Amino acid sequence: xxxxxxxxxxxxxxxxxxxxxxxxxxxxxxxxxxxxxxxxxxxxxxxxxxxxxxxxxxxxxxxxxxxxxxxxxxxxxxxxxxxxxxxxxxxxxxxxxxxxxxxxxxxxxxxxxxxxxxxxxxxxxxxxxxxxxxxxxxxxxxxxxxxxxxxxxxxxxxxxxxxxxxxxxxxxxxxxxxxxxxxxxxxxxxxxxxxxxxxxxxxxxxxxxxxxxxxxxxxxxxxxxxxxxxxxxxxxxxxxxxxxxxxxxxxxxxxxxxxxxxxxxxxxxxxxxxxxxxxxxxxxxxxxxxxxxxxxxxxxxxxxxxxxxxxxxxxxxxxxxxxxxxxxxxxxxxxxxxxxxxxxxxxxxxxxxxxxxxxxxxxxxxxxxxxxxxxxxxxxxxxxxxxxxxxxxxxxxxxxxxxxxxxxxxxxxxxxxxxxxxxxxxxxxxxxxxxxxxxxxxxxxxxxxxxxxxxxxxxxxxxxxxxxxxxxxxxxxxxxxxxxxxxxxxxxxxxxxxxxxxxx
Length: 504
Fold this sequence. Notes:
about 500 residues; alpha/beta; seven-stranded parallel beta sheet; four-stranded antiparallel beta sheet; 21 strands; disordered C terminus; Glyco_hydro_5; hydrolase; GH; Ricin_B-like_lectins
């Protein structure tokens, strides 16, 4: 941004912020840098104090002097290095992201920073900047990657220049620092990598190339609040896969380096989008960076101390803005599959994106319920559409409308078959004995029940299907559900309740 200093240092010591990142369960920061900070000596050499004075941010200087006296009189370039050093000291990994050229808020199509050849985007200067940054942090082992340029965009964007300069930038970073991952963004605000289907990159190195994409609820305007949520989810996820996530099938890591939601919880557009996108994140098991850590800004859009409602931290940079949101995304902090992650045999888990929880059981006699995915039940999902607890004969069965879903050993009738329906592919639907269609749902106590399927009509734009969205995902993650089904008494009670209930 304009002051060229990481946000929040007027509120908290840099080490305190670094520690809070780890304490909240994150392990990496995507730290942005403006090109001119590293290529314009007169700009990079001004002190932090002077940078704030130039913008009239005198109250922020007071906060900086109190919380970070060792930084306030450094040059802005040295202050950037100090922030990297603090993150590294506190065991936070760092991805250095060239976010923009001219310091300021990003991004628009016509801000002069969008594509090679724009007013502030000289490709040769950009190569110089990449070289300097890669070299500067070569000895910092916690700097694990460099993102070459954020959200390429604007009227000048074209494929030939993308290949020419992104390949050159990748080779430049690799030559200057062979230890870091090289991360490449696509076109159209980092939504589109579809050109890689037909035209791969030609690089001299391998094994360290990563592609990144971005996605928010507002990426699609008001689609999520104005259209049917199932339809919106299906269309958006198809686009995300066809224009970006397909690189996983090509063998490349995918880094969703920006996604997020208004953490006040009142934004319908964001809430519906996030329910859908979290299901995809769990299913595809990609790496990600949540926008954003920032609780408030020194200066943004002419407003001093602007509150960032997408921020994990609150305005004061001390309190957590929404602890339930952090709990919800904790499920995707640990990989479900890998790569190189084979603690246990491959199985399925049933994930509920709205809560960030998974279907589990406490015993044969207790209802299925939602709980931490570390305690998730391990399932198999047969071509016959039967969901069976792995290693047993017990399958998931619909009983009665509005009643708890149950486990049964009779797995051949319709009430034991579960189809993924609707455009979202996240409704799990079965049929009762009277042929009534039902979907898995969750009651207020997080117990798994079956209800009438919601929001299936594309004309229904006000309905929110979040409680009925479940995702069957692959996992090799070890869980705590090692309870033995060979305990005789629970099985006898289970059989008695299910098969002899009318006689006892």
